[in-house]
C-alpha cells in the first residue's frame, strides 16, 4: 500500500509525515512521531485515553486516520506546558492528587483543556458530562472534578 | 540487624502532610512511560491467536502458512514452551493459561502467537494459522458447573478438602471450612432467622492500560523485559521458571503501571513474548487489545452464596452460616476460601461456620481484584444483616455496633484481633451528618461494612545518602497509586530531613533484592517498614561518621531532628552535624553512606470500613443513581492523606460500578458477548457524585508509625450498601449483582431480587 504524505500543525510546529492510508492518528503520533503521551486503552473510542484536540475539538485519536490530520491543527499533551511552565490544569491535577496511575491523565487534561477553552466557568455537572468520555478507574473522578474546577477558577483570576 | 517494628506514638513532621508527588510532572506532561511506551532496536510486533471456543480439544495446529508470510520472524505454540514445571501443578496451570497445551479452556485462551516486522504482517499470519478443534461441551455457570453431570474441565481433578476422597472427578476443586462454636445450638437460641441466597456476576478490574511488555532474549542466555506489572520480581521468577532461564540472567524492569487492582499480579502473555523473542532472536513487543484484556486476563469470580443468620430480639447474633461457591476459571484457586474467611470478619460471633467451594468453569482464569473475594461475601452477609436488623426492629448501625468485633475477638477465620477499627467506623457513621440528611421520593439510604486482611511480605529497600545530603530511595514495590510520595515522606520523617530532599524510585530486579508484589495493600505498609529500617541503618552509619569526625565514642552520638549531636557536657562546643554536613565529608570519613534493609513485613494490621450511600431509583426504568456517598475507613496512620482518600474513593467507585452495571455476559456458545468498554460499562464521571471520605487512625501496633494498608477495603462494602439503599428506597431486596435496571424492574414487578 502506498504511503500518504501529510502536512499538519502539531503543537504549533509544522510537521510532515508519511503514513499508511489505514493508519490511525494515534499510531502515527506514537509510532512515527514519538509522541507517546496519548495512550491506547481500547482502540474503539470508548475510553478517551488517546484524546487529542483537532481544530479545537476533542477527538479520540484512535478513531481518526493519520491522513485526516492533513491541514489541521493538532494539540497533544506534549504541547500543553509552555516550556517549563505547566498549564494551570496540569498544576492543579498534581496539587489535587487527581491522578493515581496516571495513564488516563493525558486524555483527561486534553479534554479538560478543550472544556475550559470553550467554557471558562463550567458547573460541576458540566465538568462531569464533558469528561464522561474519559474513563478513569483509579480515582472515582472526585479529585479530577475538583482539579478542573480549581484550574478554571485560577484561569479566571479567582483565588482558590 | 534486628529491626524494632513496634508502634511508638510521636509527633510527625512529614508524615500526614500532602506534598506533590514526585512522578506528577511526568504524568501530566505525557512523559511517564507505561508498558506500551518503550521500544528496543530491531523490535518485532507480537500478536496472539486465541480460541473462539469455550471448551475444545486441540487436535492439530499447522503454522506453516503463517511462517511463510513475508515479515514473519517467529510463530510459537505450546510446543515452544515445553513443560519445565517439574510437577508443580500451580506453575503448570500458569503455563497452560499462557498457551493452551491440549485443550482450549475458555473463549480467548491463547493457542499460538506470532512475531513480525509490523502489525499488518502479524495480523495476516494469525489468520493463516490452521487449528483443528474438537469442540467439547462447556459450562460457564457456577451452580451448573458444580453439578455432578456438568462437563468436566479437568478429568483428573477430584475435590480436595473432603474425606474420604471422592470416587468421581468434579469441577469442584476444593472445599474449605472456617468457624467456631455450634451453629445449630446458636440457631436454636435465635428469635429471628434470615436465610437467603445471592448471586454476583463476574467483574473485571478494568484497568485502563492493557497488559504490555517488551521482551528481549539474547544468544548468551540473558534476557531483559520491560513490563507493566504489580510485581516485577515475581514476574521474573515465574518467567524464569517457565522459560528455563537462570533468575539472575533475566532482568525485569517495571514500567509505570496504568492500573492493576490485582489483575497485574499474574503473568499472562509475558512468557509468550519471551518465547517469541527467543525464537526470533529479536526483541518483541506484545500489547493486548482491550478485547484480549476482557477475554483472557483475569476477572474476578462469579458467585452463588447462601447465608443464614439468627439473632435474639435484643440484637445479639446467635449464629451465622455461609456457603460460598466461587468460579475459578479453568484452574483451581483459593477464591471461595478467601470469601469464606472474610464473610463474617466484621463481627464478634459465638457460633459461626463458613464453607467455600472452588468451582472450575470455562471462563478466563480468575485473578485477584482488590480485596479479592470479599465484596461478594460482604454483599450477601451485609444484606442479610440489614434485613435481620429490620426484622427485629433495630437501627442497622446500632445492630452492627452491638455485634461488632473488637480487640480480643476471635475472628470467624481464626486469629484473635488486636486493636481494630470496625467499631469506630460504625460509631463515626452513626454520628456522620450524612446519616441524618433528608431524602426525597424514590430515594433511600443504605450502609454496610467491609473487611480486608492486609498483607506484609518480603521487602527490600536501599537508601543512599548522596554527597550533597539528598537521599535516593530505591524500593522494589511497584507504585500503583502514589507510594513514591508516601515512602519519600517516611524517609524524610525518619531521617529528619525535608521531603524535597528525598527522591524515591522503583528499582529493577537486577539492582535490588527480591520483593513480593504490590498486592494485599502492602505497598506502603511493607516498603515503609523497610524504608524506616534502611533509614535507621543509614543513621547508624552517620553517627559513626560524626563520632569519627569528632573523635569521640559513637555511643556518645545521638540522632535528633536530622542531626548528629554529641551527648554529654564535655562536648558542649561541638555543633550538631546535619545530613548535608556529614555527607559532604563522606569521602574522607569512610566513603558512601547508605542504609539497606531486607525484611519480612509481618503484622499488617487488619482493615475495616463502613460506607453510607444514598440512591435514587427510577421506578419506571429501574435505573439507580448514586446521589451521595461516604467512606469511613481506618488507615492506621495516613502517610499522605490525599492518596489515602484516593484509595477510598477509587475502591468505592469500582464497587458502585460492580453493584449497578458491570458483568460478564456469556452467550449460549460460551463466548463472551461484551469484551469492550462500550458494553462492559464502568462508571464514568457523570455517573458519580463526589465521594466523601473520613479517615480514622487506629494505630497498627506492629508498625513503627502505626500504618495499615489502605488500598483494598474500600471495594468491599459498596455492593451491599447500595443493595440496602435500594431496598430502603423502593422496598425490594436485591439478591443478584449487578442490580441493573432490568433486574430492578423485575424485582419491582414481583420477581424476588432477580
TrEMBL record, chain A:
Name by which UniProt lists this protein: Carbon-monoxide dehydrogenase small subunit
Transmembrane segments: none
The keyword Iron is assigned to this record: yes
One GO MF term: metal ion binding
Residues in 2Fe-2S ferredoxin-type domain copies: 4-80
Alphabetical keyword list: 2Fe-2S, Iron, Iron-sulfur, Metal-binding, Oxidoreductase
Organism: Lutimaribacter saemankumensis
From TrEMBL, chain B:
Keywords: Molybdenum, Oxidoreductase
Record SUPFAM superfamilies: CO dehydrogenase molybdoprotein N-domain-like (SSF54665), Molybdenum cofactor-binding domain (SSF56003)
InterPro entries to which the protein is assigned, alphabetical: Ald_Oxase/Xan_DH_a/b, Ald_Oxase/Xan_DH_a/b_sf, Ald_Oxase/xanthine_DH-like, AldOxase/xan_DH_MoCoBD1, AldOxase/xan_DH_MoCoBD2, AldOxase/xan_DH_Mopterin-bd_sf
GO MF terms, alphabetically ordered: iron ion binding; oxidoreductase activity
UniProt-listed Gene3D superfamilies: Aldehyde oxidase/xanthine dehydrogenase, a/b hammerhead, Aldehyde oxidase/xanthine dehydrogenase, molybdopterin binding domain
A Pfam family annotated for this UniProt entry: MoCoBD_2
Domain Aldehyde oxidase/xanthine dehydrogenase a/b hammerhead: 29-137
rRNA-binding is among the record's keywords: no
SMART domains to which the protein is assigned, alphabetical: Ald_Xan_dh_C
Name of this chain's protein: CO or xanthine dehydrogenase, Mo-binding subunit
Organism listed in the record: Lutimaribacter saemankumensis
High-level lineage: Bacteria, Pseudomonadati, Pseudomonadota, Alphaproteobacteria, Rhodobacterales
